[in-house]
Amino acid sequence: EAAAQWYLRVLELEPDSSEAYGDLRELYAGQEDWGAVDALLEERYAVLQNPTAQSMVALEGARVAQGHGADVDRVIHWIERALLTGADDGTLGEMAETLIEAGAPAEALIEVWTGAVEAFGEGPGAIPALVRLGRWHQHDLATGFEFVDRALAIDGEDSSALDLELELGRVGGDRPRMVRALGRLALSASGPVRVERLRERARLVEEGRDLEASVEAWNAVLSVSADEAEAIDALVNLTRTLGEAGELERLLERKAGLG
């Protein structure tokens, strides 16, 4: 008790003393006085002026609150502060999803992330929050796609938004969405991942029964994987249907060369 009072006195005189704060934080944690830790973090957050430093304190507050039996509202309080000061959306999103799985009201967390989007405006900082909101609306595909489109309007090549567009497209059987997402994702991929993206895209395009678009899609696969047997087989069938005898002969020779 005396040690705690001493550190509190130091912080009264020097509110930004990192050493006194750290020592007092450690003292309270050693006593498992998590309410005192929470109150100390609150004071620390108020003293700091740097958003990055504030986000670290808020993230610690969320972890302490979630890990030591605080009310859900207190956890959400810290999550909101951390999110608005720029803490990692992935970490905070996992915390939020854990809360939801434990019975916390999803609406309260959706409101927090909606507030983050409003705070970040139409800048790149809004994309993680928009993608998170889209993911939380998979039960309502129209709304989910609205969030995806808002994220892609900011950055049309953002992989997290494109991944979600692909995921929601699969859920809803939206072929044009899947084709678009796979095409864009392939541009930023390399090696086997790029080949697989283009291969899946070509299959979907062919399902749409647009012969010329299908030829183009399978040729895109061959452009990055010249010996792709599935692509050659598909093109053989397509050129036969289109009646392109010269191209068909060339493809059959290429297929024979694969052994």
Account of the protein in words:
- This protein is an all-alpha fold.
- 80% of the residues lie in helices and 0% in strands.
- The protein contains 15 helices and no strands.
- Helix 1 runs antiparallel to helix 2, helix 3 packs antiparallel against helix 4 and helix 11 packs antiparallel against helix 12.
- 35% of the residues are buried.
**What share of the residues does DSSP label as strand, in percent?**
under 5%
**Structural class computed from helices and strand pairing:** mainly alpha
The span between the termini is 82 Å
- Largest pleated sheet: none
Instruction: Please compute the radius of gyration using only Cα atoms.
Output: 27 Å
Note poorly predicted spans. none
The succession of helices and strands, N to C, reads HHHHHHHHHHHHHHH
Helix tally equals 15
Helicity range: over 70%
Whole-number mean pLDDT: 91
Total E-strand runs: 0
Shape: elongated
Task: For the structure shown, list the relevant keywords.
259 residues, elongated, mainly alpha, 15 helices
Task: Give the topology, please.
Elements: H1 2-13, H2 18-30, H3 34-47, H4 51-67, H5 72-84, H6 89-101, H7 106-120, H8 127-136, H9 141-154, H10 159-172, H11 175-188, H12 191-207, H13 211-224, H14 229-242, H15 245-257
Helix pairs in contact: 1-2, 2-3, 3-4, 4-5, 5-6, 5-7, 7-8, 8-9, 8-10, 9-10, 10-11, 11-12, 12-13, 13-14, 14-15
